[in-house]
Amino acid sequence: MNVGEVPQPRGGFEGRLEAELVRVVTARAAAAPGMATAMPGTTVAPQTAAAPRTTVVWARSPGPVERIAGRLLRSPGLARALVTTPSLLLPWLIASVVVLAAGAIATIGTGQPVVALLAPAVAAAGIAYAYGPGIDPAWELSRSMAVSDRMVLLVRALSVFGLDAGLGLAASAASARAAGITFGWLVPMTALCGLALAVATVARSANTGVAAGVAGWALVMLAGQASKGRFTAAISDSALVLPYLAFAAICVAIVLFATRTPRGTT
């Protein structure tokens, strides 16, 4: 199967094979540092500096969330890749909640839609950290799974986007900034997430993606201030909806192109 192909839901023999691969990888990762297991007659490469981080991530039994994800996705490997997403781990989620909660408090105190201005940047940072070398401890092992890179990227990106959108909506509702402003930032959030993901994918650097997303959002807000006299023009101007959506579509095309499989590669 080509790396860039989106696989069909797995069942029967393929599902059992993938589950067995995850079990074997987990068992090997649980080996003591400096030790390795191998089949007779094979050689084992020495552990790298990234091995301890990978061991921590993979050397554990599936939890309730992972088991539910495995049933829904019909892929144990994809479920493990999902629950190990850096921007879906508890510390990141706590940080996101704290930032949006502070924005809600500021919105209540100042009457300005601070949450609506913060939520796109928070989501863009999470999307940039959803998948990639250098930040994901499961990167090397995930590339050897029986699921494509694009499928892992799609599941992780949609999960991060949906979670951050839900947190943003909850914070907006809690700060009494409902109706148009509450939903107005979802479209620019989509475009900004597309930008961060495209840059992170092309540059193969989550930090570069975050920087591009935050810088892009700052430029959009400054442009709104310069042209309309208010920062909220970036989320309230209906004339920007189509440009936002077109830009998001272009970014998605860039991501698909960057994750394509070269012809003749399997």
Written overview of the protein:
By secondary structure, the chain is mainly α. The protein has a domain at 78-258. It has 13 helices and no strands. α5 runs parallel beside α8 and α6 packs parallel to α10 (186-203). The longest helix is centred in the middle third of the chain and has 26 residues, at 149-174. The chain starts with 11 loop residues before the first helix and ends in an 8-residue tail after the last helix.
What can be said about the biggest beta sheet? none
DSSP strand tally: 0
**H-E order:** HHHHHHHHHHHHH
The mean pLDDT is 75
Write the layout of secondary structure elements.
Elements (H helix, E strand, L loop, with lengths): L11 H18 L21 H8 L5 H10 L2 H8 L6 H21 L3 H15 L10 H4 L6 H26 L4 H6 L1 H18 L2 H23 L4 H4 L4 H18 L8
Briefly say what this structure is.
With 266 residues, this protein is mainly α. The protein has 13 helices and no strands.
Keywords:
mainly alpha; globular
